[in-house]
Amino acid sequence: MANLTPEQAAAVAQQAADAATAAAEAAQQAARAAHQYAAQAGVPGDGGLADATSLALHAATGGVIDPFVFRLSIFVLAIFVGYYVVWQVTPALHTPLMSVTNAISSVIVVGALLAVGVDAVGNTAGHGLAQGFGFVGLILASVNIFGAFLVTSRMLAMYKKKTK
After folding, report:
1. pTM score > 0.85 for this model?
2. Is the CB of residue 102 less than 8 Å from the CB of residue 149?
3. Residue 59 contacts residue 33 (beta carbons within 8 Å)
4. Which of 1, 49, 70, 117 has the fewest CB atoms lying closer than 10 Å?
5. How far is CA 21 from the centre of its chain?
6. Which residue has the higher pLDDT, 125 or 162?
């Protein structure tokens, strides 16, 4: 590759640009088809990327790929990626990660409080279920925040000099 003349390099670059353009056009066509299939299936809104992709694969393969299996495989892959990401973290980074966990949990607490207070907005359809899930989410996020603060304080205590 290093011995290419400028003309050959330009030709290779042009071929790569043409291939990229063709791939982009194919992706746009697939996105349009996915949006069309999602609309036909009655998926509200744009159906989301995973929904549209699963429905497009379902239609493109003649029904061989089930959308549920596609979504389930994404979920399982996310579990594996999350597991390996968390367990590959060095101990020195655990304290900053715990503070990020606290921040995420505090956002969850805000959402749970909104769900618990659904009566205040005047929408009565399904408010009991929303309040129940909101209460459970509030309790679990509060336990997570409290535990994260305990773990963070214990880890910070490890770095303090021991006095006799």
Report:
1. no
2. yes
3. yes
4. 1
5. 28
6. 162
